[in-house]
Amino acid sequence: QACTIEDWLKVFEDSTGRDLSQFKRWYAQAGTPHLTVTDDFKNGEYTLHLMLKTKPRAGQPDKAPQVIPIAMGLIGADGAEVLPTQVVEMSEAELTLRFELGAKPIPSLLRGFSAPVILETEQSEAGRLVLLAHDTDPFNRWEASTLLAKSNLMANLTAGSTPATAWLDALTKVITDDTLDPAFRALVLALPSEDNLANACDAAGIVPDPTAIHTARKAVHLAIAQHMGDTLPALIAATATPGPYSPAANDAAKRSLRAQLLRLQTRLDGGTMARAAYDAATNMTDQLAAFGCLLSAGDTTVAAAFEAQWRTDRLVMDKWFAMSVAEADPDDAVAVATGLTQHADFDWKNPNRFRSVIAGMTAMNPAAFHHPSGAGYKFLADWLLKLDALNPQTTARMSTAFETWRRYDVDRQALIQEQLARIAAHPGLSRDTAEMVGRMRDA
Q: Where are the alpha helices (DSSP H) in 30-115?
């Protein structure tokens, strides 16, 4: 039968004997809760103070506490787990936990992402390095790696700092540990995206510069490659999956890690190993990974070879169009995208083919889309105006590439507003696109 959320929760109330009225606030209250954690160690007592707050929204100025399950553990400075995972249920706005210990530990909070909240804590770089190296929880180990990567990227971006040797050492130790799941190691090795870094800048009160972000990310990626150096070829060889293609999880995990390692190696050899991998690939995953590496290295022959091989496969060609734009140098990407729109196989009336080129730049190559010349903005606006009469729904969705305009510098804001105004003034503009553009202009 058709059931409501209330019906669904009643099943759990009946089966567990618990009153879930407070849990229902997850459905009734808008916004993501923020969990702020501070700690202290004094006279053998370790204290964790947790405070929950959800930002007010229109019509909901005061937010009541929600039920927050917090899976947590404590790690010693030597990496030993002094408190195995336990779940603490937080049902009030504040909660204080106390532990009798011989030394101050490093807290491992929200293990397994036990609650969909935003965690705010002043954890030190040293503490994150311990979690990266020793935490028994894979999620928090990955989270520590992501935060360390982001802090090193932000330091390079804002101060030109080179990545910390301690982080590079810890990262290399994890990646070379063959007792760890290759899929996990691949996730640890992946750097935050350029859009993620732009969000981080904005949150820190820094006006993001997409060109500088792109440069910083490349510099840090190169530093990782140089630090791992001679270990990369052996690691790549160890991730080979000989024999017939298998979709089994272990083989898929190895292919994922191999793709990340090959991209690092390309930073060092300009694509020599990627070319060998491309030629030897027996499956689409490996071939696409090597193809992306070669495009990023500026290989001028691989695109034609890939096209010749796969021109009759529509889905693979969608990948070819998208990656050709995504991997292009930001200074050249608009020209590359323009050339692709003139390709015989570019059917702009096909939504997937249209998105493959347009989103290849707006979503996958932010430095190109936000190029200081404004060429990326004009390119998008031109194609939105062309598509709108035929497919207003796709046009409206694709126009959201402009929605973060306020976080950029005044010059980029003016360039974006110019294109939004041009779209808004277009005769016969669809209702869908007009509503979306109007909302963005007023934001």
A: none
* pLDDT over 90 at 281, yes or no: yes
Residues in the chain: 443
- Match 């759990």 to its residue by tokens: 12
Residues 6+ apart with CB under 8 A from 428: 389
Q: Do the Cβ atoms of 77 and 106 come closer than 8 Å? A: yes
Bridge partners, 118 (sequence order): 34
Distance of CA 48 to the CA centre of its chain: 30
**For the chain, first and last CA: distance in Å?**
42
Please tell me the pTM assigned to this model. 0.91
| HSE of 209, CA atoms in CB hemisphere, 13 A | 9
Secondary structure element (H or E) that encloses residue 36, with its range: strand 34-42
E-state strands within 218-362: none
From CA 268, how far away is CA 243, in angstroms rounded? Answer: 29
Q: Which of 318, 316, 278 is nearest to 297 (CA)?
A: 278
What are the distances in angstroms from CA 383 to CA 286, 338, 380, 403? 33, 10, 5, 17
Query: One-letter amino acid identity for 247?
Result: P
Reported as a pLDDT band with limits 50, 70 and 90, residue 333 is: very high
Helix (H) or strand (E) holding 90: strand 81-90
Amino acid at 332: D
